[in-house]
Records
---
Amino acid sequence: MARIVDVDVMDIRFPTSRELDGSDAMNPDPDYSAAYVVLRTDTDAEGHGLAFTIGRGNDVQAAAIRALAPHVVGRQVPRDAAALGALSRELVGDSQLRWLGPEKGVVHMAVGAVVNAAWDLAAKLAGRPLWMFLAEMRPEELVGLVDFRYLSDALTRDEALAILRAAEPGRAERTKLLLDKGYPAYTTSPGWLGYSDAKLTHLARSAVADGFDMIKLKVGGDLGDDVRRMRLAREAVGDGVRIAVDANQRWDVADAVSWMSALAEFDPYWIEEPTSPDDVLGHLAIARALRPIRVATGEHVHNRVMFKQLLASGAIDVLQLDAARVGGVNENIAILLLAAKFGVPVCPHAGGVGLCELVQHLAMFDFVAVSGTWENRVIEWVDHLHEHFTDPATVRNGRYTTPTTPGFSAQLRPSSLHHFTYPSGPAWAPTPGHSRAYGPLSEAQHVHKPANGEEGDEGGTA
């Protein structure tokens, strides 16, 4: 049997703060980064995964992944649900590392990166894209991947099994539909807070021309600016296109209610992360005050237990799971089953480095084998950094193209690994006008922000 012989971890950072791509009210100048892991075997097969960060701290995330290597090196290559479930349980169950969470934060994200890399490896060996590899598993195998501890008061094993069995009869038809049509998407690309009004308007119109029927804007910096930007966006896209807004945790409960009440005239589809992602009661109060405006959250919800509370309390209308925040594929299956139990649509968070590539598989698996629907469901699309992946996510006419290459679509190109390794890669060399490389507490944290109406670059990132 093939074995894992090494866990290779790299600190990969992209200087996205130079153009303010990814900027929002809480994170004004992110450098999109990946603590990138490769599971190397004694064959040619490899498994690739990552934890997404926004710059400083990516080295801390990489160190956490390295700390898990003793659980992985020497292990037989996992090829089926039983082995992948056992790996996940062992990684999560390391009591001394778990103490640093438990089951949250840097260590839990490290678990997710390694677990996802193992799924990438297993799916490649099976000759299937990850979504199909999962969707072809028996309900009993899928349920065996889920840790029901702390969940059974809201979702039992038998209930999860019933959900999966109910979706079995239409799997083949939905697989064909997915391959023929792809999966619905919305785009955040027009809405970064650091973009000028002219750039926002141009990109919003371009999104509609490209087939999107939903866009998203960042809000929460200044109410007057947000009112103006929402008016411009609504005028640019018309009444038939949904506009979601995202506050990135900026507000207290009362602020969220008053701020969104001021934006209500522009018919926002949802408000995302209106307050702390840990504040279940706060989300519930906001939801009660603002409906029919939907409340969405999930990209910073750190485990299945928090999602259980958000769902069971009725605090959210849209669940935004993240492929790299929780403990990998296994825990995200638990979250998908919870969402199906409570009838809440899943609209995954994406963007960043590789999040579009990863999360498309989870949404497509959900469509085929869990919820059986894409009604009121969309995957976020941000057109940044896809060119660095060997199997990049693509969107055509407002829909994700269904991936068919075996694996989890997580593998970065060797040239990109070389160019963007921090701090030695050429992308981090000093540039004209700057005395040293972009990086911790450098000029990247003090870039020029375009004034309103000033034309900016229309592209993605370097």
---
Amino acid sequence: MNEISVPRPNSLDAFWMPFSDNRYFKGDTSRMLARAEGMSYFTPEGREILDGTAGLWCCNAGHGRREITEAIQRQAAILDFAPTFQLGHPIAFEAAARVAELTPEGLDRVFFTNSGSESADTALKIALAYHKARGEGTRVRLIGRERGYHGVGFGGMSVGGIGPNRKQFGALLPYVDHLPHTHGLKENLFARGQPQHGATLADALENLVALHGAETIAAVMVEPVAGSTGVLVPPVGYLQRLREICDRHGILLIFDEVITGFGRLGTHFGAERLGVTPDIMTMAKGLTNAAVPMGAVAVRNGIYDAIVDAAGPGIEFFHGYTYSGHPLAAAAAIATLELHKTEDLPGRARAIEPYWQEAVHSLRDAPNVIDTRDIGLIGGIELAPRPGKPGARATAVFRRCFDAGVLVRVTGDIVALSPPLIVERPHVDRIIGTLAEAIRAEAA
């Protein structure tokens, strides 16, 4: 393919890259992406890179979808921006209704944000406002989980449990505690789908209730499947047990569905696949196929009613963003959800899941692979770290895969895979085959 005509940066200094080794990248710029279409990215030189990560867990319908692009273009020509503070524009209401068609029954109130991070912080604030509206203002404690990821706002980061994301920033929010993560049980190694052991780890919430008092705990926030920490799939019965304990003590259960939403597990949301309905649900990424930044929080109708009905005249919930329900984002969401429906993206994920599962677990005998795991169209391949160099082996595998034309994602020494839901068998074969070669090349 011919070289792609794109502006070339004359300096890399100005852009402080997020979650990146800036010093390494700016000394070796061979991993630039300039264009995307279907299942692939393309470098400025025109080299194809098969996308094994849906961008960053978000381009579920594949790249460059004309339907989404045209919807954004049309909307930009009609209404580029309108505030939603004490005003409205029709397309935001339509987008919210489209989201509510997919959420679990009873979670029909949708608050728009601009990212998963904002969604997490919004959900936590809704939980606090709800309890205060009901006269239980002592419920101020927020419970997360070790190895959980809920974005990089102060609320989500405080409730999150990934050490490197927290250690630079001090104490963060007060009144936060954490459940243990569900990973590491030897009986669950190389599990296909949900592992069978570990449901009782949810009982740690009872210990926190005994320690702090149920009357102080507002909410528990967990990912149905922990993604950014390296694909931790919940044990059978774990989320059900967590739901039961929350109900027993009047604690709200929040699912962070930023990764698991919009078809990734073969259902609209992870809640549907895993059989547990939360009180509040966060989302982003697949909501607009990442064409325009947008997030959302869906809440149980009774939570909305409690906050609104308890308020005096005027504003009921003192929270929001300038770009909440942005017209271009709303247009992108509507077009994306139409593709989600007409192309049955969850159904496509379900149809290819057995083939995907076999492919992921075919790596179990590769050098230094100590675990493989999967659910829906997610795969995790855990590698033994190099002595004294955690993360180095997986990083080397990532670079080898990119240079061979396949994009994977690594976190620590775990390779995480999450291709667009339009993936087909030849794509799966190429992703897994390239990864296997890279793992073998980094066997030493």
---
Amino acid sequence: MVVQDSADTGDVRGGVQLEPFLHQVGGHLSVLQYDEHTVCKPLVPLEHMFYESLPQAMKQFTPRYKGTVTVHLQRDSRGHLSLVASPLQEAQGSLKVSSESAAVAIWETLQKTTGGVGSGTRPLAHLAHSLSESPAKTLLRSEFHFNTAAGESQAERSFNPWGLHCHQAHLTRLCSEYPENKLHRFLLLENVVSQYKHPCILDLKMGTRQHGDDASEEKKARHMRKCAQSTSACLGVRICGMQVYQAAKKHFLCKDKYYGRKLTVAGFHQALRQFLHDGARLRTELLEPILRQLRALLLVIRSQSSYRFYSSSLLLIYDGQEPAEPAERTPGGPAPPEPSQAALAKVDIRMIDFAHTTYKGSWREGAIYDGPDPGYIFGLENLLQILQDIQDGE
């Protein structure tokens, strides 16, 4: 993460208070919500350079890059810490923050009951205590949802706890390592799930290798061990988190990276089926558009010579709310077209997390590779085959 020199932060009333992004299902860096259509994350130079020089062919499979912002810690009169963004000139478009936010309400509720992040009491630790569980057990639970204030619908009150976990850990680290007037740089990126009412998200860590060229020997050994002990080694892909909307219960079924690491090949197959299941039926109409987009992505990856997408993830996204039924025929009028369920289903495939991506021309090259990324291709091919098996009823 890039940290700038201390400076006068100016009138923060014109800044944007960043919100925890409640649809973050994986990763360890905190992803924050800037506005309805924009998220931001700590700037890592290699990832910044990747977005600045993104090949045209890959743009349809990555979040739209919107520039950068400076961010600083701010403590309110109650002692609660938050991150405030001050947009830079390179930020594109008009960015407005909503006046009402479920994310802020949830985060403030957790802080109010614990005395704030900076007070030495952890919100999730308090939440764990209220559930008579240890903090570790709460965070590592495979299935979890937390309901806030009365009066909201069950669907509105359900969220994935992973984003709050990352946000709380990030705030704790920042307030312990840096003064409050220290400026940090964040990337502004498209919120790829903003168009979905109940976004179902699968975060897949791609490739057979997860460490970057600049990794220490200790980090290299740790990541190689994780790959060897998971489906990364045999399939080139493993689950790093997911949320699936359960239509009848009106909440998300959530799985975290620890669940994904323990899966066998058979378990991985079953987890993909679970990702496509709404609690009542398997959403088979999603398979055709997912397979079509994955095949298109495979062609793009095969065309990117020298790129190695170490430790990057692939998001599979669809809406947990099923598409509306086709319009009824009006008396005496022509019959409306009858699109297939697959045509109605909207899905999205996006590559994310490029902090360890290397390619010819990147400024910190540990090595220059020839040809496309074999580990990523291996993972994509296996993912395609497993989804094809599900479609074929195997």
---
Amino acid sequence: MPRTPKYSWVILLFLVISGMINQVDKIIIGLVSVPLMEEFNLSPSQWGLVGSSFFWFFIFSSALLGGMADSKNTKKMLAWLSLIWLTVQFVTPFVSSLFLLVLTRMILGAGEGPAPALSTAIMGKWFPKHRHGIGFGAVLLGTTGGSAIASPLLISLIDQYGWRSAFIAMGIIGLIVLVLWMIFGKDNPQEIGLPSFDQEEQHSSTLSKVSWREFLPYLFSKNFVFTALCGGCAYWLLSVQAVWFPAYFSEIQHFSGQTLKLAVSLPFLFAAFCQLGFSLLSDWLYRKTGDIRKARINLAGSMMLLSAVCVYLATTVNSTDLKILFFTLAPGLSYVILSLAPAILMDFFSPKNIGKAQGAFIALSSSTSMIAPLVFGYLIQYAATEASGYHYAFQITSLGMFVFGSLFWFSVRPEKRSHSTTKAEEQVGV
């Protein structure tokens, strides 16, 4: 197996930090939900609109700009995206209406949409195939681990200096990282005299790039559709965690102080361990078996079903400790599909088209994140009580995760191709 260049780990470090900033910028809105809703006098359905608005442009930019990662300079693309993220953080403290708040979330979503596809494309250049699991897992480890560390710190900052301070702090951090990326970031290994791994793997796939028009039919394959649906379950829960968990813990469960910080940060901390642990396990299984179903699909599918059970149990137990436990386990287990999906797609599609595949995957699966906050807001506002509204919403979440997780686990099977596989198919898929 090809060796991984030492500088690849420097690039991975930047991707991890970028993922941390990306995710924390996303979840800040949930951490400030209670004071911001009070200041702007927002109803639950209006807050659901705020949470949903982030994904309106996120979806389109994932598909449209994500595909550009196959051909554009990835260093420059990441720099421009980072500039959008930090600019929104500096602007948000000055918003004065629901309209402006929604507008900032839309712009942030547009800037963050292409990030997963961009990270996937960069990973394909810098890491060999047998390292993809740990590479993608490390990036997602950064998103969840960074959120676990940042959440209690930002909650303390919000309590002392108000909700605006959290956005300013993240804007400053984003600016520092952007400057370092411009100095030390590299687009590909050729810049330091080494070949890209997407060039070294020509023996396993034809690397001809195809247009979106030629690529589109492959997105209707059973494997891609059910992988996107399973990913949609994870994004549904991700948006609920970001938008509604803090409000649920403080307003319905009446958590405060250290208990609130634990309830908000523990799910991210556990998810970080899941991303790293299952990615390592998946890579080990892949090296042992060479079977993507045994190494990736079985893990992601079984964890999605277990996550669905945890969401259900979290709404039925009365013990505070058990409720925190199940709400801690559920997100981390469901996010396993997000760390393994890029590696799964890398097996289905050639490296030169992975930006399109990953961009389409993020666009389709993350569309559930646009719906989930609205569903929760509607049920919370119009149920007999807010508590019962949360209960119904979590029950719907659990059922959907179980159904689509099962479809993914039992239906996604890599096709066994013969040597007579057509040239046109090889241009898109392996």
